[in-house]
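Methods — Computational structure assignment.
A single polypeptide chain was analysed. Its primary sequence is given first, followed by the predicted tertiary structure written as structure tokens.
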Amino acid sequence: MVFSYQRPESATLCERLRETPRFLIVVAGPRQVGKTTMVRDVLANYPSERYNFVAVDSPEESPLADTSQTTAPTMRQLAQPRDSAWLVELWQRARTAARGDTEGHVLVLDEIQKIPHWSDTVKGLWDADRAEGLMLHVVLLGSSPLLMQHGMSESLTGRFETIHLTHWSFREMADAFDFDLEDYLYFGGYPGSAPLIRDEARWRNYVNTGLIEPSIEKDILMMTRVDKPALLRQLFHLGCRYSGQELSYTKMMGQLQDAGNTVTLAHYLDLLGNAGLIRGLPKYAGQHHRRRASSPKLNVLNMALMSAGSGYSKAEAQADRSYRGRMVESAVGAHLHNTASPECRIHYWRDGTNEVDFVLERGERLAAIEVKSGNVPRVVPGMAAFQKSFGECRQLVIGDGGIPLAEFLSYPAEHWL
């Protein structure tokens, strides 16, 4: 069966490619969420002569071979370093194609971050195209969110428009792979792992070796300075184990070897978050400086990360009521993070014995969200205490007797504001 599920971002990319080129198009998101697949599916609607899709890290592709010659490309051509000179020559060929086509041309560069100093080179080429008014769309993809962010902020400010792809939602996994709620709570939202879920040992091996390890090794350790790689790995596994729970940096240091200081842990937690793995949600305090100093609430950003190293099978995870409660809360936190716009902030709140699992904030709007894995009680003390401290807000309780979990996970974060 040919898989042809289209995420909403596909329509956005199609719209951008129909416009006159105004910005570089950057398709961004965590590893293995379908960035390359989405772009290839969109390009499948174009005649082959109207685009070039180049995987920078693929030795099989030789876009620099001179197609006017009848002889096969030489090994030297195939082995040409993927450097700035290679990128300039490739771009020039795309320019030639664009000048010969009134409808324009599309150049896609996948794994662009593997070209040294790529952003400076792209800046010069793009600015020259804009001066000429060339009908050449350029789409950039990369599997390292950290390096992509670094390159774009350094040289390309004001020149790019980002299409964000996040981890797949419950609704997307249900529509594309027929996941039910229990499937999603355990197996999460990685499309590449969906065909493996009937063989849980194989599925766990794929997530651990094909998703988690490359995300840490290639997207963090190879792309940014990390003085204590072992500590970062420990912190990741600690975050998976305590997902859905508040954990002070002091307690983290007590469970980690060679933990350094709280500044190091906070920095490493940020790196893990930027790679799409784990976030530390700040405490809501109404004052931004107090939020930064608070103990974070750890939350995986894809439920597969929590399950793969848990030691539980799906059936065992469902049977352990305490663990399943953390699965439910973690799924809500991941959903809020993955579907919220940049203007929407996500927190938790605690004051003594009163707590609210999640607080959504956008401008002056507030929503307090309490998650119950079982029946919803008539009175939720934390809600009343939160409203007393911060004024009127929307109050939402998720669980039996409140908003059904499947319904909550079917709408983006700001729907609930």
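Note: Residues 62-78 have pLDDT under 50 and may be disordered.
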